[in-house]
Design a protein that fits this description.
2 copies of one chain form a homodimer. Chain A is mostly helical and about 220 residues long. The first copy, chain A, contains 9 helices and no strands. In chain A, α4 packs antiparallel against α5 and α5 runs antiparallel to α7. The structure holds a DNA duplex (30 and 30 nucleotides).
Chain lengths: ~220, ~220
DNA sequence: GAAGATACGGAGGCAGCCTCCGCTTAACAA
DNA sequence: TTGTTAAGCGGAGGCTGCCTCCGTATCTTC
């Protein structure tokens, strides 16, 4: 068993976790990250164990199920996105902050092709990982959303869950050619839809100084 | 080989396809539809063969890969959605027609939990199925979109591909509690974002209209 | 250094994937 | 009808990956 702080707050002594166990766990995580990123969610766990230089038994002891392994691997990644939201909370324009978070999310996803597929698979099966990351990101994005809604810049009836869902879904379609610019465009549309329209934004298309809401990519 | 009209237009004789082959193919499709719907994309092909009452070899002869089987199963389903778009082209309000198509899509998806996961998996791997359904639905939705854009009711820089991608993505997150109403809400937001804002919709909430400059990707 | 807890690793059982090939059956010609 | 033959059938078998189990090795603690 891996030591967990606070797990056993009654009197029993608690052994320090074994050094080799800690080391091996780390190695497996490292290997899993690489293999999942490259090979997607179907990657062989035995291959991961081999790459980590441990026996398959060791891998299973640390991560009894495939999903457990996902969870551990992605936890850090999710944290990163979450922290970004924290930073953006200080931006001046709350709507823009939201937009920027979403855009960063796209880039983030872009660097982890196989991993996203794996994540998506986990989400499907309602695993622990989903619960964690969804909640974590929901909370992160919620603060951005609240701020924007409180400022009256954005409709207030869309929940963080909704938004996250939509975002995730859009990204899921990645790995088609041009998916990235497509998602970016979609997000712009989406944020436009969320925004409580300020007067400046309301021009019929004929009017000339229309701000270029979206730059076409292709 | 299954007979395909026009496959062999030079002089050779062409045998009629064997009745048992046709029958078995149909049985396998039937079984696959049921099994995939229930069990998702991971379902055992052997289970499908058994349910269809044929040998595993027969299944593989007709559908050499898992994806081939998906393709055949979903083709009809895709056709249905596609036809719906055709009908909606005659609605009065083009934006509303689009909205309704999307909403029907959600319902459609809702009845086929496992199947959508299977489809999504296929999309991931860039299979034939994806090419077919994406193109088919793109064309279908394109007509709706064009009509709305031509009427000046909708921004014109969003392609059918974009829209389909976003829609599919949103639906992909299904099987969480409440996903359906969430997706419906998201779609409303989305369609609102697409709509070229009519003056009536414009309430000035903020004295100073924020200039929502879209930041380019860093 | 000894004792005992903890972790290691891989053999082995199981399940699903896919191929291969001898047997069966339907289509066609006579 | 009947015979011929291409087309189709099915499942045994080889392979790979999943996961468990347990004898052995290693670490922590005293």
């Amino acid at each position: 068993m891996i030591y967990i702080a606070g797990m056993d707050d009654h009197t029993d002594q608690i052994r320090k976790p074994r050094a080799d166990a800690v080391r091996n766990r780390e190695r497996v995580l490292e290997a899993a990250k690489a293999v999942f990123s490259a090979g997607g969610p179907e990657a062989s766990l035995e291959a991961i164990a081999k790459r980590a230089g441990v026996g398959i038994g060791t891998l299973y002891r640390h991560f009894p199920t495939r999903e457990d392994l996902f969870e551990a691997v992605y936890r850090r990644e999710v944290e990163q996105l979450s922290e970004l939201a924290e930073q953006l909370k200080n931006a001046k324009d709350p709507v823009d902050a939201l937009r920027r978070w979403l855009r960063s999310g796209v880039e983030f996803v872009a660097t982890k092709k196989g991993m996203v597929a794996a994540l998506a698979l986990a989400v499907q099966s309602g695993s622990e990982l989903h619960a964690f990351s969804f909640e974590r990101l929901t909370k992160a994005i919620g603060s951005l959303l609240d701020r924007a809604a409180a400022a009256g810049a954005m409709r207030a009836d869309i929940s963080p869950e909704d938004l996250l869902r939509a975002f995730f879904g859009m990204c899921y379609m990645h790995d088609q050619p041009g998916w990235q610019s497509s998602v970016l465009r979609m997000l712009d549309v989406f944020v436009d839809g969320l925004r409580v329209q300020p007067a400046a934004n309301v021009k019929t298309r004929a009017a000339k100084p229309v701000k270029p809401a979206v730059k076409r990519k292709r």
